[in-house]
Design goal:
9-stranded antiparallel sheet; 6-stranded antiparallel sheet; mainly beta; about 240 residues
Length: about 240
């Protein structure tokens, strides 16, 4: 069961100046755990981008692509709706990765409000060439792509939640993937409902799924798809 929440007012990014140089917008991909407030959900300047992104151990983001790749190459996604993941596994198709091999260190999502004690885990899945929703299996990149488990500490978060991966999660250069998350109760996630598709597939692929108390399913096949995209991102190094 998927429930859409109310439309939220746009959030305004604040850019501070220091010695005449504009500082980057929301910082968060390199910070583990829970962080931020309402402004952290607003897209700001890309934290890092371009062919050299990730070089020298620098952590950069690979966000959900959004409509017409609006978040690419590396802008924190915005939102205009809320959606729950009750007993569902759902994905967001990402922007292409940096032009070099990288490894996922964490997955981030914005948690709004919901049932205290709700659990969520995420992982990284492939976006196979010629993907057809409902037909093509969606395999996991590697077992280490599964994140640690999140337990909602209360009914209201209004914050980015960043979950570390549990092992190696290697990504190829210049390749799209799917961020997949699975939840057991009703906790609203930020979602952008603007029509979004990549290579003929709608950006939100999903199916009903009992919450994975152990490893997330591998592989699985979507039974539904929806326009729009979750406001999620990978942090890669």
């Amino acid at each position: 069961m998927r429930a859409r929440g109310r439309k939220l007012a746009p959030l305004v990014a604040l850019i501070a100046a220091l010695t005449g140089v504009a500082r980057a917008g929301p910082q968060g991909p390199h910070i583990a755990g829970v962080k931020g407030g309402p402004h952290a959900a607003t897209a700001g300047p890309a934290i890092a981008s371009g062919p050299a992104a990730g070089a020298g151990g620098v952590v950069v983001i690979v966000p959900s692509a959004g409509a017409a790749d609006v978040n690419c190459p590396a802008t924190i996604p915005t939102e205009n709706n809320q959606v729950t993941l009750v007993s569902t596994i759902s994905t967001a198709i990402t922007c292409p990765t940096p032009a070099r091999a990288t490894n996922v260190v964490s997955i981030s999502f914005w948690a709004q409000t919901g049932t205290s004690g709700s659990h969520q885990k995420c992982s990284v899945y492939t976006f196979p060439p010629g993907y057809v929703s409902g037909t093509t299996a969606i395999p996991k990149v590697a077992p280490g792509c599964d994140t640690v488990e999140w337990t909602a500490p209360g009914p209201t978060m209004n914050a980015w939640v960043t979950l570390a991966t549990t092992g190696a999660c290697p990504l190829a250069a210049s390749t799209r993937y799917q961020i997949g998350c699975n939840q057991d109760n009703g906790y609203f996630m930020y979602f952008n409902g603007t029509s979004c598709s990549v290579s003929g597939a709608q950006c939100d692929q999903y199916r009903t799924a009992t919450y994975a108390t152990a490893a997330l399913p591998d592989p699985w096949t979507a039974t539904n798809q929806s326009t729009g995209a979750y406001s999620w991102y990978l942090s890669v190094q």
